[in-house]
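Re-run with default settings, no changes from the original entry. Doing this only to confirm the output is reproducible before filing.
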Amino acid sequence: MLTSLSIRNYALIETLQLEPSAGLNIITGETGAGKSIMLGALGLVLGNRADTRVLLHTEEKCTVEAVFKIGDESLLQIFKEADIDFESDCILRREIAPSGKSRAFINDTPVSLDTLRAIAVRLMDIHSQHDTQELGSQHYQLSVLDAFAGLGPERDAMQKAHEAFTAARKALQAATDNKALAGRERDFAAFQLQEIAKAKVQADELESLDQELTLLAHTEDIKTRLAQADSLLQSAEGDAITRIKTALQALEKAASYAPALSKEAERLGSLLVELKDIAQEVEAFAERIDYDPARITWVQNRLGILTTLAKKHGVQTTAELLALQGVFSEQLADFDSLEHALEGLALAHNKYKTEAETAADFLHAKRVSQAPNLEAELGVLLAEVGMPNARFEIELKQGEVTATGKDVVRFLFSANKGMPLQELKTAASGGEFSRLMLCLKYVLAGKTQLPTLLFDEIDTGISGEIALRVSRLMGRMAAKHQLLVITHMPQIAAKGTRHYYVYKEDGGKRTSTHIKALTDTERVAEIAQMIGGANPSQTALQNARELMVQT
């Protein structure tokens, strides 16, 4: 429960300190005195967003701190996951700097707003007039039914299953779209690969053919020059080999007299061997080379094919052309793997779809089984708050699977005998809405074990005997839960175990909002003013006393 609330430098509040009791805490005050301001400040420590416009003094930071006494051991896991020390006195603090930067703390440990909300939502529930309006929304109604049925874990499982299904569906759709695009690319890559593969390109073929064509084109000239070289080396009179052979014989004879010439004789002998080898190679090459017009034509055609392919793909060498062939082969392999991936994604999609539908079916069955119980409990409570002929029914229809299942829920209501059931937004007046919301909160408070609830004018549209009945219902709630109730109804105010009065002061340079806990005498006077206005009569004072002692 909330044991302390401290507010500093927020809107019209310089400083404000509140220490509510464990039971029913009443908050009253004139319209515009600042009750909603206090509610807004409390919303900060529950994770609501804020900006520098809330600063009373723009050069100072705003601080809101709420201390809760925790008895719910189930919160231990949340604290552990957030790496926060768990203490029985849990301090939630929010600071807004003049720069606009906001910081949140739990037990003096800095936390994110998401973490702050995750813990705060387990500590306190604030009902505002906006919540009453939200009661007409399908999303809110489904949340009410699930909270009554205790389907929190099932809702979490449904959301996770739907998230997995949604992710799988998106992945499958993206892969399907990619396949359509890749199909065109695959056809083009296959065509290019086939074109290169059909040419049967060999390593270094382009370069070797180019060299061969040059050779074939100059065959006659080469043969003429080879014949000339052969003649000079070994065929003609006075050829090089004959001359060197004669020179070698002379040098060897001289070396027999002058050993110093032996080395030169050896060198000349080696030269003679090399010349003979060269002469033989020239002769053999000349024998192999012939003018072949057919071969020239074939080489020219082959070169034309390879050169055209090279130019088409922007390359210059055979190696580059063969590398491209490998690239196109890999692309086709990638397209084949895309097919396999698509099959896997389709299987995953079907798996997660089945799991989401199974989770939705389970939720549906639970909701169908619990809806009559909620209808029955609300029927009893509505009679207690002055609507004995009211009928409340929950309509459940099934639609597409979403994060909350596949149920489309409608709360149907009729306040008067003989009137048909209609949707809440058209069937209930303001006072009826307020009472229905209070009854729902009463039922849900017992189901969720929420320690603290704050009601902001949930008594709108009621008065007289109905207000008295509502006050009794609140009194029963306060026996199990801490309630903070902002009200204009004297019947409800009289039920409080502690009564706070919110007021404005116009002293100094600005108006400021304050709050004080009323004594018993002050409570009587405040309730009497709520009954009879300013300067209440003795009758109003007596009525106030009687309300305070009524059960």
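The CA atoms of residues 126 and 401 lie 30 Å apart. The mean pLDDT is 84.
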